[in-house]
């Protein structure tokens, strides 16, 4: 057995038997006996891939024959306690109680905690994490393996310490916060999710922040440090984009402030934890990498380009087996409908494709008869607009999910999808890769790209891992273990590149014995090779760190800023301007403002000064196109108008009507009707990127839906980019405090600001403060808010919009 390998196995008669087995074709009892015998041999192999193949064969056998006894025995031997325990509870396949089964049941209880049965390796992982609670570690474990429980473990075991959890997105931030709130950890009185929630004199801090928010928090208090820092989705550190470099920069600053800080890197995919090592740090990493193989995917390709073909790819044997199609050629929607389960995820790359496909597939379905869905559509109609595309999709049992869906709507429809059997489909993009968890049995991948490139092997495996999570596999409502074989369909049609070779793509990503290596390109990582191409990027990153907080970079021999404005720009993460070459020029303009006693108290002056101080000095490159637009008076006037709406506290529905009026007006007055739409653009203006849309050719419904995504994108642009420059103005005392607060929070009401700081939308904050103060407990000193449980009943009794109720429920302990 020592010499058996996948490569040798492929050159035997096993392949013929295995292909029939995989396709469940011409199988008989003799063939099944051979399969079981071979699987048993494979499971005793020293080759890890052969062993996994044996396990895969046992699972497929059990699901094909409904005979789970072999899987029961194998699961016990492999320490797969959740599988064995689940099989014991299946009524149809229950075993007569014997001393053996009773002993097993007692043994299983050793792995039972918090109403969950853990596998042996999960238990080992938990023990490792506990034993190493005071060491820097990396945990490499598949999606749904319980990494959130490890975060909670740190919070329970490391009481009364400063703990920070860094998440890559606001969505994951909110999700993590809810898990912590619901865990009822007694010593946690406050969770900081916004830099301004920190008062400057607090101990025992628990913070959940993105790297951008953490940077601002550290700016606000130069003495603040953390004892434990948990980096969720830590594989993002390997990337070379600005956010990944910023994450590494923040970790460097954290270690400088506390040389004993303990880092916990959590990631679903990483080959070598040494690739997380960061320049100018001294931490050493202990690693636990999960080797347990629980689910075994079935990977299908349905290619409708030219003559339709359907096959299954076996990533062990590395071969494609054709599947005879019973039906005539189907398009992508027919195929999905034919093979769909009760809950399905459909992946596309572009947000425009996500919405477009959601509309296409929903047009094939009849409207559902459901009071709950009817009420949901009514509430979304009131909250957004009656012509919002999501409403038509929801009526047919389809929702879509991408970065331009308003956050309260996203939270609401995710809950609807989880709660209602009638909603079968989520059409989504890479937001699903960022920790968002939704129930699903099957996945249909309609595009193999992420951004401008193909999904990487780790991204694809991470995506596939979102289907059939452990909590769904071992749900006692299930009558079998089919969910141990998640079905992933690559539906190759109009959304794939014309020259896309999906078979080659699958082999590169999924072949079981293909060596996959990390590709660290973040210049601040020790293992990233520095050459002529990226040396300038490293220099820039080190200059940022050293000018943000001096004394961090060893043997630093590069530039320091020499002006107040230069220093403040670095503290606020201003990257779009070459600060060193422009700081003196900008400082002169600032000094002139002081001399003339210029003080910004309105949005018109604000954008004029932002332009003359900063935006005209922005470097001219593709990344800065958003800011370069401010050379146009029309752009500055538009953002003045948009910011006025925000200051007014206008809800989404009102802002949409404002957009419609604005667009209709420029058409009537024969002004330039080419409006900026960013990633939703259809035409190029200056340059080659399609960032613009000619609004005069759009219908009323199209304008509504363009307004929705434009509002979300503009809010994100204000919150992520423009606000940095407004913070600079605030730091150098050039802006009125009331205007600053209204821009940042949409209000200068102290109570409402605290709600917004705690992650509650301005619309809900207005409703709660104006109508439900009896149920809202606000601590103006601690910057905390508690919503009482009675609030939800009262809101239901008052027939409030369920989107508001859903959001409020998200914040109730």
UniProtKB/TrEMBL annotation:
Alphabetized UniProt keyword annotations: ATP-binding, Helicase, Hydrolase, Nucleotide-binding
Superkingdom of source: Bacteria
One Pfam family linked to the record: DEAD
Residues passing through the membrane, by range: none
GO-annotated molecular function: ATP binding; helicase activity; hydrolase activity; nucleic acid binding
KW DNA-binding (keyword) present: no
Domain annotation Helicase ATP-binding: ranges: 128-269
Protein name: Ski2-like helicase
